């Protein structure tokens, strides 16, 4: 059974850092494009970043230069390092598995349960 | 970026009704259009990909159609578990973009 389990969220002050993790099970994540999508409270879905299976990385303009996506294939784990956090980064962060991908865009067939990140003083 | 616009933003319907949600892209996305369902407190769930292909396990009352810029998601006979928010998403060009969502409520 495919599962994605996120961790690492929490409360952080503006300007601070957090690292999210997403452990995949039931499939080998190194052979898939993996993505982070976020959802601000009461709002819609926003793409954050994608790591494709060949090593390419893609970022939304709103996080470029502040967030870094990476993988540890031995651990079947996807990461999102978030630096210089702002109040507007407050959201539930989901990791998702990509299918039918072209460059940095795919549709997403499996999603984690989500992890809340709150940026506030 | 490709803008995705859904209509309506909210919809009230009854069990057994036929419901259609529309998604329009700001430029052609060919058939690279996907639909998700999200219930409160849960992650989104893929329903339809490539405009009209069913994700495994999705009930046959859900169907998708369209090509280019105009797409529809139809639920043929609403069931109680279908009341949720629905999102369209284009996977034609980076960045992938979502519609604003359609909140389907019980009348």
Protein model, in words:
The complex is a heterodimer of chains A (121) and B (107). Chain A is an all-beta fold and 121 residues long. Chain A has strands at 3-7, 10-12, 18-25, 34-39, 45-51, 57-59, 67-72, 77-82, 91-102, 105-111, 115-119. In chain A, the strands form 2 sheets. In chain A, strands 2, 4, 5, 6, 9, 10 and 11 form a 7-stranded mixed sheet that branches. In chain A, strands 1-3-8-7 form a 4-stranded antiparallel sheet, with no helix packed on it. Chain B is mainly beta. In chain B, 0% of the residues lie in helices and 50% in strands. Chain B is built from no helices and 11 strands. In chain B, strands 2, 4, 5, 6, 9, 10 and 11 form a 7-stranded mixed sheet that branches. Chain B has a 4-stranded antiparallel sheet with strand order 1-3-8-7, with no helix packed on it. Chain B is globular, with a radius of gyration of 13 Å. The interface between A and B is medium-sized, with 26 and 26 residues.
* Oligomeric composition of the shown chains: heterodimer
**How would you state the average pLDDT of chain A, rounded?**
96
- Overall strand count of chain A: 11
Find the structural class of chain A using helix and strand composition.
mainly beta
In percent, how much strand structure appears in the residues of chain A? Answer: over 45%
Keywords:
heterodimer, A: 121 residues, mainly beta, four-stranded antiparallel sheet, 11 strands, 0% helix, 56% strand, globular, B: 107 residues, seven-stranded mixed sheet
Structure, briefly:
Chain A has strands spanning 3-7, 10-12, 18-25, 34-39, 45-51, 57-59, 67-72, 77-82, 91-102, 105-111, 115-119.
